[in-house]
Amino acid sequence: MKNLSTIAQRLADEIRTQDWSDAHSRADGARHDRSLDRKGGEQLSPDESALVRMNVIWVVGQALAEDDPNFNVRAFAEAAGATDKWLYNKDGRPNRGIEAGLRATAE
Fold this sequence. Notes:
By secondary structure, the protein is an all-alpha fold. It has a domain at about 50-105. The protein has helices at about 5-15, 45-65, 75-80, 85, 95-100. Helix 1 runs antiparallel to helix 2 (about 45-65) and helix 1 (about 5-15) packs across helix 3 (about 75-80). Keywords: Plasmid.
């Protein structure tokens, strides 16, 4: 992975591996594994799940950025499983939306 602190990498791993497809209708913490789920229920589409994941990336990224002046939100987003739609423009260049999702902080 790319230059992430130990805690940032652990957080990114948790975000990446979480099933976000039913985050709008259940709260069952980090233990959720849809393959073992007997409840079923309404699922978000892949695009909607990616949107939830991206919001989580920005919220956690905001806190990490405030704690570490060298924090790289793009590397964090990639490690956390942000889709190419959020990371790159249609022509393949990095899209600046990842960085724009964080609030500017006063030094």
